[in-house]
Amino acid sequence: MMTSVVFFCIIFVSILCYYLQRTSSVIYLSGTSFALISNKTLAIFIPILIISLLVGLRYDVGVDYLTYKDIFEYYISDDLIESLKSSGVEPVFTLLCVLLHKMNIPYYGMFIIMTLIPMYFFYRYFNTREYLFIPAMLLLYMSGVFFWYMNIMRQGISFFILLYAVGKLSDGSFFKYLFWVLIASGFHISSLLFLPLFLFYYIHKPLFERSVFMLIYIITWIFSKDLTYILLSLVEPFIEGYYLKYIDVINTLEMSGGTGLGVLALHISDIMLIYMSPLIAKVFVEERYELYYNIFLCGAIISNIAGMNMLLSRIPFCLISMRIIVAAFSIYYVYNHWRNLKMHYKLAFSICLVANIAYFVGNLINLEYHFVKI
Hints:
It is a single chain. This protein is an all-alpha fold and 374 residues long. The chain is 65% helix and 2% strand. It has helices at 2-20, 39-56, 65-75, 80-87, 91-102, 107-125, 133-142, 145-151, 153-170, 174-185, 210-222, 224-235, 261-283, 289-306, 317-320, 323-337, 343-366; strands at 26-28, 35-38. Strands 1-2 form a two-stranded antiparallel sheet. Residues 26-36 and 253-257 have low confidence and may be disordered.
């Protein structure tokens, strides 16, 4: 029950503030002509603050929550070098924790800051893409990206920074893209996978035809377990730092699959997005839809190969999470062209939407939400 209250509160505030900033450009002090604050600034500040408090003040929500709590309380000190050695996590994350430690901020303050950072980049990304905000915001929760962020916080933060970075790449800002990818890698090393993806800027169409990609997707999904061992042999030599303690069980460490319906829902959603891709790619050429789609494509293939392996499944997280932008383009187009849309696209979109709603409901039901006792 508490989980539903928290997330519906977040969604309600986000939508309300979005429409607030569209009403007028500024809010005025009563009886004066002095502009106090722009509605746009307010519409960004309020949801970021509320989300940071509601999510940052959670307790033991997410599989790695207590691990991060222990890292901050027992492995972080005022000495940056010593903290880097003892914590075994990336430098930017460690640096922020050291600064917070120096200011005697409690562990829940760290979680608030680590929620504020990704939300800031999420809202900054949509500063010039307001038309995508509502569908992307809904998909952030419906597709499970935000729930995953609460599980794998460092990598979750990286994704939001990388989303902002890809936005810069789509605008042709290569230096800014490189800069933010490197910053993201300071939270999680897997962000370095985005370094060669600047080449996608020069590719103005999907990497594969729809039928070819759907075939690859289905094959990698069906033969996931066999392909997982190949991927394991490739990444095992590069495992270091915090993950070294899993080296002896990397072959057997798997996520709990539950009923498997959630995973099935995501696969169905992805297949429907692939099916709709030729239509959406033709429409959003200037917006560089294919850039996000190709990143999602790479993530989907790697994710299928990684399967349910606890460590490998984290590698493509930032790549496949671009599905929220791919899907946001689809929702925006379908919403504005429903009447003229061909029946098979209507059906594909409806299946995709139902799959995401089902996945969201499943997360709300299965996640127990608690707050810290301050």
